[in-house]
Amino acid sequence: MSQKRIAALKKQVAGENLDGMIVTRRDHIFYLTGYTGSNGLLIVTKKSADFLTDFRYTDQAGKEVKGARVHIMAKGDLVASLAEFKQYQKKNLRLGVSGEVMSVSGKTRLTKALPDALIVTADHILAELGWVKDPGEIKLIAKAAEIGDIAFQRVLALVKPGVREREIAAELEYQMKMLGASKPSFDTIVASGYRSAMPHGEASDKKIAKGDFVTFDFGAVYNNYVSDMTRTVIVGKATARQKKIYNIVLRAQKAGVARVKAGLEAKKVDATCRRIITRAGYGKQFGHGTGHGIGVYFDPIHTGPGIGQNSPDKLKINNVITIEPGIYISGWGGVRIEDDVVVTRTGCRILTRSPKYLLEL
């Protein structure tokens, strides 16, 4: 698969009138070569592909990298190491880079290493790399979602007054690993009571109390692919206000899922969710985008397409995206519900199976 992906990039490089493309982002490198280490650099030309790393990853690169020649460099600075390659010292060699990824200092070092090359910003070449998943990738994401579903069901029995958020998060991550995950997709969010109004409220020492909303936002990494799910539950019986807020979010989330299909502008999915929440009087309490793409594990796990008010993206068959509207009322609490879905020609397939009705624990 890596060889096919690199071959496709070679054709794109040739079509863009470039001599080569320098790839530095870790998820792009993994997608193209299979390499999972933390230090790597890939150069793809019209006819070749060279992968650079350092001594620490000699064995790992030898086993993982497919479709490119592996070079173990003495210098830890792989950009500076490009000065050692005669084939890249040709005058006026046109090499593309991703300007969104490469730092100013990185570009300075690159110019120093390849003084005769023309460094061209070519973000568009890698802009949607990996957004459309193949069947094998979808299978891995579905497995990651299944692990998250089972782990979530297992920890619900622990959600009771007096238990700390950190304790529940630790058990959730433990259960995911016991089910085959290598790690959580990101720092697990367990936010209760007033803290559930924090969209990124990572688990704290706060003790859960009766009557609290508890929001879980978590995911599993399985064979380097991720899931990302959010559910909100109530400890004890829900009040009328809690039910009202929960049901608004649930309607918005279900409507967003139902809106998804290939060819649709992603911002229209966001608009569908946002319209329901806004008409209910809580538009100002929904301050983030409706979702994002997922796939390969790297920090952050967000990829494209983006599902937001100003997204320029269109949905394509086999994009895997999240749909996660929410309402957050400062000092009181909040609700978010999130599913992972695969975009199809006429709709979508939901990968996350945990129930979405309000659980009163």
Strand-helix topology:
Elements: H1 2-15, E1 20-23, H2 26-33, E2 41-45, E3 49-54, H3 58-64, E4 69-73, H4 78-81, E5 94-97, H5 104-113, E6 118-121, H6 123-126, H7 135-155, H8 165-178, E7 183-184, E8 189-192, E9 213-218, E10 220-222, E11 225-226, E12 229-234, H9 240-259, H10 266-279, E13 291-293, E14 303-307, E15 320-323, E16 326-329, E17 333-336, E18 339-343, E19 348-350
Parallel strand pairs: 1-5, 3-4, 5-6
Antiparallel strand pairs: 1-2, 2-3, 7-10, 8-9, 9-12, 10-11, 13-14, 15-18, 16-17, 18-19
Order of helices and strands: HEHEEHEHEHEHHHEEEEEEHHEEEEEEE
CATH topology of the largest domain: Creatine Amidinohydrolase
CATH superfamily of the largest domain: Creatinase/methionine aminopeptidase superfamily
In total, the number of domains comes to 2
What general form does the structure show?
A: elongated
CATH architecture of the largest domain: Alpha-Beta Complex
Instruction: Report mean pLDDT, rounded to a whole number.
Output: 95
Give the helix proportion (percent range): 25-40%
Question: Helical region count?
Answer: 10
Report the β-strand fraction as a percent range: 15-25%
Q: Measured on Cα atoms, how large is the radius of gyration?
A: 23 Å
Based on helices, strands and strand pairing, what is the structural class? Answer: alpha+beta
Order of neighbouring strands in the sheet with most strands: 4-3-2-1-5-6
Report the span from N to C terminus.
Answer: 46 Å
